[in-house]
Amino acid sequence: MKPMDYQELGKRISKLTVKDTRGKEVEISSLWSERRIVLVFLRHFG
Amino acid sequence: MFAFQQVAELMDIKDQLDAAGVSLVAVGSGTPEQARKFVKKSRFKGEMMVDPELRAYKAFKLVRGLWRTLGPESILRGITAMKKGFRQGRSEGDLWQQGGLFVLGPGRKMDFQHRNRVAGDHADPAAVLKIIL
Question: Which of A16, A41, B50, B63 could form a Cys-Cys staple with B99, CB 3.0–4.6 A?
Fold first, then answer.
């Protein structure tokens, strides 16, 4: 898998949302718009 | 099992992330309720989000598939995991979906990307720290 640049990622996640643990929708890019984060995708909860 | 292991690895570097002003956000493939339970059980200290439809997993080009999950080495292990997996698949998220780790922001920046090829193939915490510190 070749690395993706931010430009490509930006297109792929445009308007994409995830939910917080209360079920509230959050635009994913807003998670790092104002700060630096480590974003970790887990396998299933187990 | 692998998700717990991954969380434990991240908790080992959490203090250093905090000191560097970097927030830790996890995304899981189950429901918000499963995520709350997982946070409790795993002692994850960070923000937790869920993506039950795997749209973000797909957008980040994370690997998904039976073959990728099991690897070519053992058919027997595969059958066992499959039996277990279909149960887990319904109750705890998507068994065939692999994870990954990215360093993002602030703004339109991505300084690190790691996509797990098989279960347990996590990003090296030392490599993540090297990018951040």
Answer: A41
